[in-house]
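Re: weekly structure request thread

Next one in the queue (206 aa):
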Amino acid sequence: MKFHSPEVVRMAACFCCLRCCWDGPGFNSGHIPLKEIPTVKLDTSVMGNDVVIVKDGRRICGTGAALSNAPIAQDKAYFEVKIRSTGVWGVGLATRRCNLNTVPLGDNTESWVLRHDGSLFHDKQQRGKLSETPQEGDVLGLTYDHVQLNFYLNGHPLSCPLTGMKGTLYPVFYVDEGAVIDVQFDKFYHQPPDGFDSIMIEQSLL
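Done, posted below.
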């Protein structure tokens, strides 16, 4: 068994004491508040007047639309929605210039969305139709690589992309007529496709 001299023991104890005073128990500062790590969620400051956001920014209900609190800046991003209650709903991408009080979206130049009936809309034009219509309890995955917005139903690709997106884009979600949807920006129900990951907040927004 190896013994240390009393002087070495005292020095180690002083070091631990000083470190604890500086960093606090567990080496976290007890004097300097830890900065909360921001997470991507629904933005309560950028939503329709009659929208209700609950579950810490993860559930949208009421009437109208809401954007996420961060744009998609990375090359390949993935996020999900779970349909908790059917009605009129939609999900896709939009700019901050989009009118979030008027639904359905997709009737203007600032939004590209999948609607509850499986149709894809932008600027009042139908740009496609899913082969399967999402139902209550289904999980929709969305991937965006700045070229295509693709959709996945319960983990399976639907091979019906939206294209032509431009500008700084945010995930957008809208509800009406009793629809309730949950959004997932992390802890996904399904594994993102290869190369895609959860939306990252830019350093300039931290």
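Residues 6-23 form the longest helix (18 residues). The helical segments are 6-23.
Next request, please.
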